[in-house]
Amino acid sequence: QVQLVESGGGLVQPGGSLRLSCAASRIMVSAYTMAWHRQAPGKQREWVASITPGGDRNYADSVKGRFTISRDDAKNTVYLQMTSLKPEDTAVYYCFKNGFWGQGTQVTVSS
């Protein structure tokens, strides 16, 4: 089965940075649009960023200019580099390919 495994979450202070990783199995991330979504406590899951096979990137307005999605084809891994983190970024972050979700990794932004 397709597997997407996120890692890199943790506790960071406001203004800090964190890089999330999504390691894929049984698919090549270069062949599909890959995305990151997040879900804060008591909130609906929301789309954060995506990258197409051609390398085009798109971001939610709430993270544009602060987050960067990227892909390492040799490692078959998708990344989300997060900078200038805000408490509002606190959420479980999920890696996504159409039809498949990772298990999520917790990001907490707090002093």
Q: Can you give a write-up of this model?
A:
It is built from no helices and 11 strands. The protein has strands spanning 3-7, 10-12, 18-25, 34-39, 46-51, 57-59, 67-72, 77-82, 91-97, 100-101, 105-109. With 111 residues, the chain is an all-beta fold. Helix content is 0%, strand content 51%.
Q: Given the helix and strand composition, which structural class is it?
A: mainly beta
Total number of β-strand segments? 11
The value of Rg in angstroms is 13 Å
Mean pLDDT: 97
Describe the largest sheet.
7 strands, mixed
Number of alpha- plus pi-helical segments? 0
**What shape does the CA trace take?**
globular
| Fraction in helix | under 10%
Query: Unreliable segments (pLDDT under 50, ≥5 consecutive)?
Result: none
Strand fraction equals: over 45%
Taking the alpha carbons of the first and last residues, their distance comes to 40 Å
Order of helices and strands: EEEEEEEEEEE
Blueprint of the fold:
Layout: E1 3-7, E2 10-12, E3 18-25, E4 34-39, E5 46-51, E6 57-59, E7 67-72, E8 77-82, E9 91-97, E10 100-101, E11 105-109
Parallel strand pairs: 2-11
Antiparallel strand pairs: 1-3, 3-8, 4-5, 4-9, 5-6, 7-8, 9-10, 9-11
